[in-house]
Specification:
Elements: H1 5-17, E1 20-21, H2 22-33, H3 37-50, E2 53-58, E3 61-66, H4 70-86
Antiparallel strand pairs: 1-3, 2-3
Length: about 90
């Protein structure tokens, strides 16, 4: 699964905290990214469609959790980089 740079930021928050609400994600990332609640919602929607996150409805609040393992995502990113830069041959 390919994550964008923005999706990586949200995924890292979720891997660190296990489960977060939209408000918690926005608060954690707003200073470093300038993102609003709407931006976080948009990114989470994309990540839900990809299967990168899941959520549990807790009353009116949704608690989001990562649906992918951090080490698997990192390995896929490394393989993707090797394919792009070295045509899959790290020996080059």
């Amino acid at each position: 699964m390919k994550l964008t740079d923005s999706e990586w930021k949200i995924a890292n928050c979720l891997w660190k905290n296990k489960s977060m609400t939209i408000a918690e994600i926005t608060a954690e990332l707003s200073e470093s990214t300038g993102w609003t609640r709407v931006t976080v919602i948009t990114l989470l929607k994309r990540m839900l469609e990809k299967g990168a996150v899941t959520f549990v409805q807790d009353g009116r609040t949704k608690r989001f959790s990562p649906a992918i393992d951090k080490s698997e995502a990192e390995n896929e990113e490394v393989e993707s980089l090797l394919d792009r830069v070295y045509n899959g041959n790290a020996g080059l």
